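Figure S7 source data.
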Amino acid sequence: MKKIITVANQKGGVGKTTTAVNLAAYLALLGYKTLLLDMDPQGNASSGLGCRAQADSDTLYEVLLGKCVLSGVIRKSNLPNLDLVPAHNKLIGAEIELVGQKGREYILKTAIGKLDDKYDYILIDCPPSLGLLTVNSLTATDTVLVPIQCEYYALEGITQLLNTIRLIKKALNPSLHLEGVLLTMYDVRTSLSQAVVNEVRRYFQEKVFSVIIPRNVALSEAPSFGKPVPLYDASSKGAIAYSQLAEEVIARG
Amino acid sequence: MKKIITVANQKGGVGKTTTAVNLAAYLALLGYKTLLLDMDPQGNASSGLGCRAQADSDTLYEVLLGKCVLSGVIRKSNLPNLDLVPAHNKLIGAEIELVGQKGREYILKTAIGKLDDKYDYILIDCPPSLGLLTVNSLTATDTVLVPIQCEYYALEGITQLLNTIRLIKKALNPSLHLEGVLLTMYDVRTSLSQAVVNEVRRYFQEKVFSVIIPRNVALSEAPSFGKPVPLYDASSKGAIAYSQLAEEVIARG
Ligand SMILES: Nc1ncnc2c1ncn2[C@@H]1O[C@H](COP(=O)(O)OP(=O)(O)OP(=O)(O)O)[C@@H](O)[C@H]1O
Ligand SMILES: Nc1ncnc2c1ncn2[C@@H]1O[C@H](COP(=O)(O)OP(=O)(O)OP(=O)(O)O)[C@@H](O)[C@H]1O
Ligand SMILES: [Mg+2]
Ligand SMILES: [Mg+2]
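Tokens for the predicted magnesium ion complex:
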């Protein structure tokens, strides 16, 4: 059984990449064959796994433009059971180059459909926008995992995101549903964090994962070593929280 | 003399809105007539000044689609000398609706050109992407202020941003140049913050503002009261840092 989970939120800096990279790492460590697709031209998920794409090699960009197949751009990561499809700057061009193309929303779905069935989980990291790259991911995916930072501004974008998910579900992907809402960067020192948690729990109820990801320096240091947090500091609070998230995702089936 | 400064960086959550709102507030408090344009469909800058746009009223969206003039959508803020042009969700549609239009990059520049000369500063807050809304801002502007978060991932997007600025300067706005680079969310407790500061200073040299904005809870709490930080907690470290930034911007002339 292959499950595709997209990590999305158009609000910037809420922990999408940190969640995609570390959830993928823990799913792999728990024995599930996992593929991480980096749909963000910034390529943070790629470098978070120590795997920068070169301009002259094939990446997700070439796949979206039909120049090669997805299986041709899969790379091994520094973790067994975890593979990566890296992003590159040039991915920015895809949004413009595909504008007129018919069926452009289904390109990623078709590309994933051609993969053989060896993965248990496919995770997709999205850029902070609701453009074609995010639309492609939401069309290809089974579920969407929404990280929400424990900050005031992060609350504001939620309705816009839910509207987009509803539109995609109606027009492009009828089986799309919420994997869950993940509260991130919880800072015990501020009352604002708890106020946001209460608000999000009231709104999303059982859709909110029980684990809350705390603000934790190991999570922001690990990418500078090209490692997911379990390979950088497995006993840190951030690492423990993401391993709990993986258990919750597996339990939801 | 009217100076237009765009606050931009496609990396999400680096402090663009926090910088635009609080810099605008301190320029106004120092006696400069200031206009803040919210080009981000999330509308964080609008709500950061306590001024949410309603769906049925005219906003920047209507201006970009040529349905009304900029002076018709200007609102007063809770500070003398500071006006705001609010954003609304519907601004997302502008990127798609304007795709085929000739001269679509110059729409904002033309709209600002029609304003009478009463403002000393016009600040523009951008979304976390390099799409048409950001391109319009970079085409209309005199300079660009780039906030960079003291985090590893924030370093990665810099080359992409500089490439975009160079392209815009060549093709659309020959006088475009860097207002400066602002280091944000500096956390004294982590060595990562200092490592990023050193790296950014080495790369940008005198273009980096002397003031570094510390991570400070007043900056993240103020928006939940719809106030810029000088009206929320003027003696906080965050407020003092942004007032220093305003002095530096004025001194650069
Ligand atoms: N729980 C955490 N504790 C401390 N730092 C964190 C945490 N989660 C993420 N970070 C750091 O905060 C920054 C933003 O996180 P991240 O890049 O994962 O967000 P994003 O939503 O992917 O951003 P973008 O919108 O640009 O894609 C990064 O520098 C990351 O290292
Ligand atoms: N110096 C600071 N100290 C503490 N919190 C901050 C600071 N600067 C910004 N914040 C908070 O961090 C979050 C991200 O900042 P902000 O929204 O200004 O970034 P942005 O670049 O505008 O994000 P986006 O890419 O989504 O537009 C917000 O919740 C804000 O309140
Ligand atoms: Mg990211
Ligand atoms: Mg913003």
